[in-house]
Amino acid sequence: MTERPSEPDPPEPEIDEPDAGIPLEPVEIEPPPPPVVRTAPAAACRTCGYNVEGLLIDGRCPECGFPIQRTLAADVLANSSPEYLAALHTGAVAVLTSIILMIVIGVTAFIVTIAITMPTGDVPPHWLTIVSAMLQLPISLLLVWGWWRLSTPDPAYTGRDDGSTARRVVRVMLVIAGAAAVCRAAVSLFPQTNVFVLTGAGIGVVAFIAFAVRYFAEMLYLQWLTPRIPDQTAYKQARLLIWLGPVLFVVLALCFYIGPLIALILYCLLIDTVRRDLKAIRAAM
Ligand SMILES: [Zn+2]
What pTM, to 2 d.p., does this model score? Predict the structure, then answer.
């Protein structure tokens, strides 16, 4: 057995001698650095809007359990709540579906009208007006519902420009569009006397003005939404369509409706781009 090397004796602790006479300098002991506690600045939870100020950054919202780190992250849609993204995505799908159905109904009604009126030269029968209006009503309401979802406010958005003006204008115009669709369907049920024909035309004018105002508001809203995807291409499309759409609609309407058709296709492509972006973001979550 080898002897363990003797360890040096620990130094004797210095004992203050109370009778030393000379006061000792107080020894400054560095306190150990406190553990870094990172707390959140004032911010609304992305899911429920709860103010997470002062809470631990690594923690979760006490109201809904959403991670606070994601609330504080850069304001891209990937950091938004799944519910909000689901609302936008289903809204875009509903808008596109309703437009496709509207085209199908419109073309079918046109062909049926020609087929019925061509041999006799009569005006279209009243039942055709009723059937057409009753088929258009749910599709119009689907479009209203779709854009209502697509213009859902983000409960977590804390940026300075929250896109609320354009978004609210879209929603007010949607209410008018929905009411106009119901009124138009109701008016179609009555015998087509002058009073009801004029009422229907008046509703049509109101609906068109609401549609025109909503179109500009939609494009402004998409210019706010698309940077959050972020999708620079869709943003540029929205900036282009805000003036190109009306130009195509009005100027080229004289050329066998080709202008409005091109405008409609470009509009659908833009909504479809946003839809695919939202689908991809949701799939990556
Ligand atoms: Zn919350």
Answer: 0.74
